[in-house]
Design a protein that fits this description.
Strand content: 15-25%
Strand order of the largest sheet: 7-6-5-8-9-10
Structural class: alpha/beta
Distance between the termini: 41 Å
CATH topology of the largest domain: Rossmann fold
Largest sheet: 6 strands, mixed
Radius of gyration: 32 Å
Order of helices and strands: HHHEEHEHEEHEEHHEHEHEH
Shape: flat
Number of helices: 11
Number of strands: 10
CATH class of the largest domain: Alpha Beta
């Protein structure tokens, strides 16, 4: 490895270390989504400098140098932001580095110790895989099959009466040569569908929707790293549920009452119509502030217990609440029997997103 390659590799490791140190901060910065390109994310990283010596000005003096009296000024103070005149000294700058989403998810996995997901189902998506299982008469010399070439030469010499057992010299000619060749085969791939369900009733404000948006961004990034194909369905509800596109999901104005069961019922219908549990990995993420219509909790629990939890890889409920309503939906969920694919937690503020991702995805289901 050349010196410049070593320096580049060292620099990238330093940058990776800085990103890991500040990962919790990046996960709560929704500007990160705005910096996202097709395959890369631009992340602001504090300026990285390698250690080096600097030399002061001769005769300038300083603390501990020369005579002084109590009250003497030790040195010039640094001007505050926005103060001082134009000068020729460099300032501190922020380096914005591009990092691939796969590398960013890898850093996320390392920091949160997320396990690898074990998918189920493999009938809907096919990818092409090349395997060298065929033999042909033409091809590059790098793929020449020695044994098959030798065998063809031996057969030809025996058939022509040229083979001498006392002097078994086999000399292949052009028509004896055989080459490895690949065959393209289809390989079944696992796929996944994510249902995002969000309460858009009158009690859900912009702060709550922002928490949902940031949490969903990291869920998407993680599941895309585990599956070749991921479909996303967005459901919103107040007292009734409807399916919407992604933009509407995050920007729909809130109003009306709350029936959490309406979203679960719509989710159940879509699963029955489009996603056979034997072929699809089904992930359900539901977000609400927990304030549900008083008689609706039991219906919601019945839908989960008998229809959705038996077919889902994971059902995660995030309660984006700062207030306390008494008996909220997360309290109702705690009355369900403990199941591996049932996860629930509070998301009170931005700082909680880091821990929520670990709680939601830490089981590798």
């Amino acid at each position: 490895m050349s010196q410049i390659d070593q320096d580049t590799s060292r620099f990238r490791e330093i940058v990776r270390g800085r990103i890991k140190q500040n990962l919790r901060k990046y996960m709560t910065d929704d500007r990160l989504i705005g910096r996202q390109g097709k395959d890369l994310v631009s992340i602001p990283v504090p300026q990285v400098e390698l250690p080096h010596f600097t030399f002061g000005q001769t005769g300038r003096g300083g603390v501990g140098q020369g005579p002084g009296q109590p009250g003497d000024v030790l040195g010039q103070g640094q001007p505050q932001d926005g103060e001082g005149q134009a000068g020729d000294s460099p300032g501190q700058h922020i380096l914005e580095t591009d990092i691939s989403m796969s590398e960013l998810v890898q850093l996320l996995s390392e920091e949160l110790h997320l396990p690898r997901i074990q998918p189920k189902g493999n009938k809907n998506i096919d990818s092409e895989v090349a395997r060298y299982t065929d033999i042909r008469r033409v091809g590059p010399e790098s793929l020449r099959h020695f044994k098959r070439t030798y065998r063809e030469a031996l057969k030809r010499q025996i058939a022509a009466g040229l083979y001498d057992p006392a002097n078994p010299v086999i000399i292949p000619v052009r028509e004896d040569r055989r080459y490895r060749a690949f065959e393209t085969k289809t390989k079944p791939e696992s796929n996944a569908v994510i249902f995002y369900m969000m309460d858009v009733s009158g009690s859900m404000g912009e702060r709550e929707k922002r928490l949902v948006r940031m949490t969903a961004f990291w869920i998407d990034a993680w599941l895309k790293s585990n599956y070749r194909n991921v479909q996303r369905r967005y459901l919103v509800h107040d007292a009734a549920a409807a399916e919407v596109d992604e933009d509407t999901f995050y920007h729909l104005r809130q109003s009306g009452g709350t029936k959490i069961s309406s979203a679960l019922q719509l989710c159940r219908e879509l699963v029955q119509l489009h996603y056979a549990p034997s072929d699809w990995n089904i992930y359900l993420f539901q977000f609400s502030d927990g304030d549900n219509f008083s008689t609706d909790n039991e219906q919601a629990l019945e839908l989960l217990r008998n229809h959705l939890l038996p077919v889902a890889n994971l059902y995660c409920y995030g309660q984006v609440d700062q207030r306390h309503y008494g008996d909220t939906f997360i309290d109702a969920l705690e009355r369900l029997d403990a199941l591996e694919n049932l996860v629930m937690t509070h998301i009170p503020n931005d700082d909680a997103i880091y821990d929520v991702i670990k709680i939601f995805l830490g089981k590798g289901k």
